[in-house]
Amino acid sequence: MNQPIRVMLVDDHAVVRRGYQTLIEEHVNIQVVCEAADADTAYKLYKSKAPDVVIMDITMPGRGGIDAIRQIRQWDPAARILVFSMHANAAYALQAFRAGAKGYVTKSSDPELLVAAIESVAKNKTALCPEISEAVATSRLKSDANAFEALSPREFEILGLILEAKSTEEIAETLRLAPKTVGNYHYAIKSKLGVGSDIDLVYFCMRHGLIAPLVSLQST
Q: What's the DSSP call for residue 19?
């Protein structure tokens, strides 16, 4: 009998982790060996437990999932990471893959699709849910679709913290960077996206669906 796929769950909500653990372990070939609520814990557990697949949320307190992917992949270039997120925006998916993810599934996907994605990523195959496949394909047809691709994963992570209204000092503490370095990243982000101020940056991200209120406005 083949050894089960050893999985680490990374999500800041304990109830969510427990629910997906129950779902995943209904399949005898998958076993959850550890779980983490933040990026720092995920990194430490990855080094000690060496799971076959990491299931990573993107939005967490402090450092987000994209930076966690980057850090884990720096330590282990062979790490197999599957993003499991509420974000169905192509920009998030593309940045996750640039950071080193092997798959991306949205939380609105059918549960069995998550299981299939785990099995694919365990075999070092790329896994995308239909929702993200369509979003990425559609983004390629838009003239300004590649705007966020100009950003590095670290810049994209900092952009997310800026959009959460975090101060330069708070971002520096979260990412263990000097405030001056954060300021340089902030300037580079605005320069690459072609905006001149923080309010323009917010409007730019709203137009591209990175900020949730835009979804609410579109659905009304």
A: H
